[in-house]
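Lab notebook, bench 4. The sequencing result for the construct came back, and we need a structural model before the next group meeting so we can plan mutations. Quick request posted to the team channel:

Model the 3D structure of this chain.
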Amino acid sequence: MESHDTTESTPVGPAPGRDAHAAIEALANTEGRRLYHIALRLCGDPEKAEDLVQETFLQALRRWETFEGRSKPTTWLYTIAARLCARLDRPRAGQRGTLASLDDLLPFSEPVSPVTDGIGGGDEETEMRVGQLASGIAALPEAFRMPVILKEIVGLPVTETAQILGIPVGTVKTRLHRARLALRRALTPALPTRPLPPAAFDRQVCLDLLAAKQDALDRGVPFDAGDQTLCDRCRAVFATLDLTSDLCARISAGALPPEVRDRLTGILRRA
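Done. Here's the predicted structure in token form:
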């Protein structure tokens, strides 16, 4: 699977008769669930997840008059959320200060999983894999973690991710490419692996194919190898990159707990 659902939420923007409270409540209805489950997966604490959701929407409410409609409301909202995450981010146990170099992350000699069936497995196995991936994302340095959250979990295009983070599109892609390789390695303990023969082609051919695969993931389109035949190792590596993408889409799944929704609604209406 090359991409997950990136269907846009119903636009909510300044309009005659729409006041700040109505606009932000509408955004909370469409994005509150996703924000909560992303925060819950990454910090593992329901109270902290709820606090992040509440603070994001309270700040959005206070700043509604600054929203000029030049970007989508969801882009504006996640800009607020990203800044909050960056401000509140503190080194955690297991969190890397830096990410391994690209050469160290390239999977040319390590045992790799021959998985070819997407997520596969039962609910318990899938949940274990999602948890493993969430832990891997939480351990990424903030500069790499935020592009993954916005592009791979929220499902925003690379251009919007760059806009939210205030960095060039090329920088977003570079960080995504390294982060994906780190995350597929973090999944290894949750997957059956076996040694595969060395790459069948020149190293540069494999590098070019990997770059093309990453570009397809960036754009959310099927990967096309053209006339090039994939060796077993490239095929296995690409399958685990697809699995990583599929599992990212699962991180934000789930309903907003009714008690959290009710508290959020009450806070917004009293603000």
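The chain has two domains: 20-92+255-270, 102-251.
Will bring this to the meeting.
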